[in-house]
Design a protein that fits this description.
The protein has 182 residues and is of the alpha/beta class. It has helices spanning 15-26, 33-42, 46-56, 63-73, 90-102, 117-127, 134-147, 149-157, 170-181; strands spanning 4-8, 29-32, 81-84, 109-114, 161-165.
């Protein structure tokens, strides 16, 4: 059973939902950068206010900032972990690989949740977050395509990538992920 997982996919593909299910079932640490960043915002810290401004513009938070938050939450005493929403670009991969090497917990499998764009836009508008309107959604999807899609090729070249059809019902998608984790 794989214990060090990464979920890749565009905003709204279901990464957080699937990661939460796998995390609960296996008692794995779920590190969602989106949730970690929203916690900072809710805490009303100086960092949280910076993050809020960036996210409200539909832009991505700086690499070093996200790495620090992930590193702070990635403890060595765990049964396993799931990274959800990080890394988002090729430079973050190198930083993350260094952190994982230091704690001797290399990435074992990368799940790419694949889904049509029109389905994503509908899903994101339905979840009703303050930072989800059609304009910011399209901005985030364009940024995703430019920065995150190269990760798919990178992980495929390492034979770590597993495609998941995320345009299905929750149970079917979960079952596909669990089967590929074995």
């Amino acid at each position: 059973m794989k214990k060090h997982l990464l979920f890749l996919g565009p905003p709204g593909a279901g990464k957080g939902t699937q990661a939460a299910i796998i995390s609960k079932t296996n008692s794995y640490l779920h590190l969602s950068t989106g949730e970690l960043l929203r916690k900072e915002i809710d805490s009303n810290t100086e960092l949280g206010n910076q993050v809020k401004d960036i996210m409200n513009r539909g832009e991505l938070v700086k690499d070093q900032l996200v790495l620090e938050i992930v590193k702070k939450n990635l403890c060595t005493d765990n049964k396993g972990w799931i990274l959800d929403g990080y890394p988002r670009n090729l430079s973050q991969i190198n930083s993350l690989n260094q952190v994982l090497l230091n704690i001797n917990q290399p990435l074992e499998i990368v799940f790419y949740l694949d889904i049509p764009e029109e389905v994503l836009i509908k899903r994101l508008l339905m979840r009703g977050r303050k930072d989800d309107n059609e304009e910011t959604i399209k901005t985030r999807l364009n940024i995703y395509k430019e920065t995150t899609e190269p990760l798919i090729e990178y992980y495929k070249s390492l034979s770590l990538l597993q495609y998941i059809n995320a345009d299905g019902d929750l149970k079917t998608v979960s079952a596909d992920i669990k089967q590929k984790m074995a």
